[in-house]
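Predict the 3D structure for this chain.
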Amino acid sequence: MVMLLATDMSPDQPISDDEPIVVLGDDDPLIASVGASSAVVSSIPPILLSRLATFAQGRLQAGEGNALLVALGADQPRLIATYRMGYLPATYHDALSKADRAVMKGQHLGNRLIFPASDATGQIVDLFGVGRNKAGELSCTSIAAEPLGLLAPTLTTAHDELLITDAAAVLFECMRQGFFNTLLLRGVVDARVNARRLVTAGVKRVIIRTRHDDGEIPDALAAAGIDVSGRTVVAVPSVGAELERVQHDAATAATASSPAVPDRLRIVSEDRTAEVVIVEAGPIRYAVERHHIGDDPRRLVVVRAAGQTVQDRLDLDEEAQRRRFAGNAGQRLGISADAIATHLAQLGPLIAGRTQSEQQRQLAQVPEAERSDAEALLLAPNLLARIASDLTALGWIGEERAKSILYLTGISRLLPSPLWSVYRSSAGAAPWQGTALIAALTPPEERVVFHRLTDAAIRQQGSEQLRHRLVVVDQAECLRPEAALALRVLKERGSIGWATLATDAVGEARGPVAVLAAAAADLDPRCRDCFVTVPADERPEQTERILVEQRRQHGAPPLPASAQAVIVARHHAMQRLLVRKPVIIPDADRIIYPAAQVRNRVEQAWFLGLVEAHAVLHQRQRQERDGAIVATEADIHMAIQLADGVLAASTDGLSRGGRQLLGALTGRQLAQFTMADLAGLLPDWTRWTFRAALQDLLDFGYLESPAGGRGKARAFVLTTRSATTPTACIRLRDGTPALSQDDIRRVGGLAEVGGIGSANFTREVVNG
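Done. Predicted structure below.
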């Protein structure tokens, strides 16, 4: 539901003033939807808009523009953070390069608050400036002749209810009164351009309050499928009282399925990383965990008022626990215990209704025509094999293991601790083609693709744009040190602030985030340990399969584009039907994992994440316990099968290549050798494969390589540790070993192309 106030920027002034503007080019897809009047050649490229926005944010953080903030009533931290506001001083041209100054010549953005507008990919496409003209009146301008992008896009996904206005003055007043879900639209064109985007984000209904209701904004929203009702003419001076009435009208008009919530209790924000919901009731603020895990029905509840905090874990469904906590909190905070007890009784249904609303909004994004096929796919007994077959149809030959792992990496974005995987090969194997297919099957709103990741690209992401998304990084071997360090910080801390990137911008990009990278060489050491490497199949047999398929494609009609679109649409619908829920693994204590190396700690966490991702993908085929998906032995066995040869699935952590090379060296009794001696040892291997396996043996102490002189071949020496070749040992305790290849074929496992094996394990077969 959206409450909309359509008013002017000032009582007698439209949104744009008469100051000169610069128009973006007609190659922008949004311009075509606006009209021919915007089709003017651009003189300000998006990269310059991004630099201007970053510079403006840095100036505001440094304290410049405070006087203007106070004068406009915009001195509100929540407003500044939500809209990623900045300030351009009157002398901002002096900070630009000579070329940029030429581009910005004649532009009057100085001494203005800057609001960046971004498109659906997160790229800044417009800058909206708010300041005062010579007469002291509110003055607004945009870079584009007609609005492009959307201001504060995170509001559309962070809140189910939005208050929308096209007046900057109303925005400032609403945020000051505590309406932190206020979205600023820049007139009817902005409404037309972004109506579909609002629908995609989950907007179903709008309540309109206009000063001059000509019907254009309601018609634009209604045309996109939004339920428009309650048009009323209001005056700007009475907006505060009117907003209170609008809020009451919205609560009265809520559907009967919504939980009954008192007017004083409302959700103001959520921390999706910690899965915490923030609720306010007058001067009292509550922070409540969204879920309780396992058999423990308690949740952490934090109450804050008058600068004091009280917290405890309690079962919100138990009146005795609510009364006890309310009495303690009321005494310490100086608030009525009865009021707190009443709020606690309402928090459980409120959060449950919130979760149900989110699920319904997600389901609403799937058209009815696509839902039946997606539901059937989720219930398929050979789901993972079906997914691999679809990837084959799209052009990915063989490599069933890699397909499954990389697809599950994308699904893991729904987990609290998603997977980070790098698909690595030599340059000739083009690993980025595989990751591109995984990205194509991921819904557009759930992925962020960086064809070349830089720290500046991360800096452009808002605080919510990466959260529970799949980030795809091409050519990861080319990462600059700053970008590699940024990835490491994001992995280890769950978020990255701009200061970490050695810039003066404000804000932070928050996780959790799943990362899928493609690399044709080693990653930067700063981020190498963040990823688990999934090696590409470079055997001659795989090369022959690809060559045969290439020849077949040239002799037969290609797969029609419509057939490819059907596959992509089916996966988009299927993934949108997946509900983000926690996963519990009841048999986790039965897993035996090698513990010889420190790196086993990180690798086991990745392995457990693979189990959870498999369970999330099969959630329609799994039981639930207290709101959590229950992973089965089938999920563990499949993760063991996938991880063999990828993780350090051995007593000492060697990969499959390392074990194979070590076995060949000990079999030939090559105690000392050079790279030249390896040519006849494994004739099918490439130089890159040898180097990767040698590095693995060096890392784990099976080889030593004394320093050699310049111009001399590097020598390798087997250590005494290599006397015994390690063997794979990830398994389940109590006589449940990892499945053999015959078992995998009998029970299901990874079906070969054209095969009929099931990708799941039934309990009868596993226990049999």
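The longest helix spans residues 337-364.
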